[in-house]
């Protein structure tokens, strides 16, 4: 795997050629720009990891370009190293205050050039890990259990992780479709690259945020370009609009996408994993989902069994959740006796894996000592009562889209209040991937630190 994508911006051809030769030999994917306009085109369409930026250029100076990068959030995904033969301490301080990783004076030292690039890449990786940090289950990333169904599922994941073909994952709510997609990503060759998610029902509303936007005055790169080389998860794909299906079809068949406001194709190398609760067969046959797209996705379908199909794995899952909550939330250990485990194995688990996880957490928080069958029965009964919806409170004076938005706004605002504005914890509790949650909060005009 190459160390990363590198952009050299300098109006001196000899310097560009020399640096290109040096870094290509080190294994970097190198791109060059002779002026600010070329640099803009590359960072908006190629998403470099590392940018060497000359201060003095004929069309626009490096500090101004750096400010443009900041305005377009380029520094969220890239490290910038400034270069100048006429550098001053004041210029270096200004650049680093703005967000540049470092400042190099010309003539460039070969040794310093390479070590600065290496350290900048390390800094970028650490920054990326911290930015995407979220609660994770302990090191176990594959499905847990000894049943035949789960053993076969683990084997399928390990086989599919070796390749890059698109995958369609089907499973009831709560079966762990996102976790399975993450496992495939983490076990494959793309594991060091980004994992990006699009929630299909939100695609039209968030298209410009995801794909970017071209106007006569400017270009907004969008978030998707930074998924280059990684994996794209599309959740609830059965709800993808016609516009979304056309976008996905172009990405699958042509390896590119087009930003709103432009006809220019942007090349993008991503592996696609689509998640669905109900499957796509009926939608494709009825004409509500593109048949060519369905056929391409359905080359390698993967179905996750519901928990009621392998309840013999419940003791292993309980032990796993106990370890998780002790390690990550500091809860006290409680032993589940044989009677308790038998009651759990006889339950139908409409909420699947997620329902069991939530139940174990509540039992650890609300009780102490051994967990017995009577406590389990009471807990399950309380769950049923808590899940009962008061239909009299539903507002039918608005359309379905508005009703959904009202519920989502109320639900997420309440979760944010309960977590003290902690978006990472709200993402974990809601089951919404953190990047998608930020988009949704922005669309619903909810301030995480001051939810109404």
TrEMBL record:
Gene coding for it: zraR_1
Modified residues annotated as 4-aspartylphosphate in this record: 54
InterPro entries reported in the protein's UniProt record: AAA_lid_NorR, CheY-like_superfamily, Homeodomain-like_sf, HTH_Fis, P-loop_NTPase, Sig_transdc_resp-reg_receiver, Sigma_54_int
Alphabetic keyword roster: ATP-binding, Nucleotide-binding, Phosphoprotein, Transcription, Transcription regulation, Two-component regulatory system
Domain Sigma-54 factor interaction, chain residue ranges per copy: 143-365
GO biological process, one term: regulation of DNA-templated transcription
Name used for this protein in its record: Transcriptional regulatory protein ZraR
Superkingdom, natural source: Bacteria
Keyword Phosphoprotein: yes
Keyword Transcription regulation annotated: yes
Cross-referenced Gene3D superfamilies: 1.10.8.60, 3.40.50.2300, Homeodomain-like (1.10.10.60), P-loop containing nucleotide triphosphate hydrolases (3.40.50.300)
Response regulatory domain span: 5-121
GO terms of molecular function: ATP binding; sequence-specific DNA binding
Lineage, uppermost ranks: Bacteria, Pseudomonadati, Pseudomonadota, Gammaproteobacteria, Thiotrichales
PROSITE patterns for this protein: RESPONSE_REGULATORY, SIGMA54_INTERACT_4
């Amino acid at each position: 795997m190459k160390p990363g994508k590198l952009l050299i911006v300098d109006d001196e051809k000899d310097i560009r050629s020399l640096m290109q030769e040096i870094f290509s030999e080190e294994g970097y994917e190198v791109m060059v720009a002779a002026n600010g306009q070329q640099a803009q085109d590359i960072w908006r369409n190629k998403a470099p990891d590392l940018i060497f930026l000359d201060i003095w250029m004929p069309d626009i100076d490096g500090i101004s370009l750096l400010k443009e990068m900041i305005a377009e959030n380029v520094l969220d995904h890239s490290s910038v190293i400034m270069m100048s033969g006429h550098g001053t301490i004041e210029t270096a301080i200004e650049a680093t205050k703005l967000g540049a990783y470092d400042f190099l004076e010309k003539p460039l030292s070969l040794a310093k050039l390479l070590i600065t690039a290496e350290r900048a890449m390390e800094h970028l990786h650490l920054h990326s890990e911290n930015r995407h940090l979220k609660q994770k289950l302990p090191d176990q990333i594959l499905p847990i259990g000894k049943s035949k169904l789960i053993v076969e599922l683990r084997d399928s994941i390990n086989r599919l992780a070796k390749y890059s073909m698109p995958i369609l994952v089907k499973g009831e709510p709560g079966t762990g479709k996102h976790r399975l997609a993450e496992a495939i990503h983490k076990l494959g060759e793309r594991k060091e690259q980004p994992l990006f998610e699009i929630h299909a029902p939100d695609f039209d509303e968030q298209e410009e945020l995801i794909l970017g936007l071209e106007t006569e005055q400017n270009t907004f790169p969008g978030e998707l370009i930074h998924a280059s080389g990684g994996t794209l998860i599309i959740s609830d794909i059965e709800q993808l609009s016609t516009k979304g299906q056309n976008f996905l079809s172009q990405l699958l068949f042509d390896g590119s996408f087009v930003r709103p406001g432009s006809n220019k194709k942007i090349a993008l190398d991503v592996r696609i994993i689509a998640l669905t609760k109900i499957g796509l067969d009926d939608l494709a046959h009825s004409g509500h989902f593109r048949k060519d797209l369905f056929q391409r996705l359905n080359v390698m379908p993967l179905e996750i069994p519901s928990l009621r199909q392998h309840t013999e794995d419940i003791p292993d899952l309980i032990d796993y959740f106990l370890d998780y909550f002790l390690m990550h939330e500091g809860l006290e250990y409680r032993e589940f006796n044989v009677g308790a485990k038998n009651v759990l194995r006889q339950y139908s688990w409409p909420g699947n894996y997620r329902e069991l996880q939530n139940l174990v957490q509540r039992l650890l928080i609300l009780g102490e000592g051994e967990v017995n069958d009577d406590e389990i029965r009471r807990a399950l009964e309380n769950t049923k009562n808590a899940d009962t919806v008061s239909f009299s409170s539903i507002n039918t004076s608005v359309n379905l889209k508005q009703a959904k938005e009202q519920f989502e706004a109320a639900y997420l605002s309440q979760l944010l209040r309960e977590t003290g504005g902690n978006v990472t914890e709200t993402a974990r509790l809601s089951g919404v991937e953190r990047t998608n949650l930020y988009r949704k909060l922005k669309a619903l005009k909810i301030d995480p630190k001051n939810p109404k």
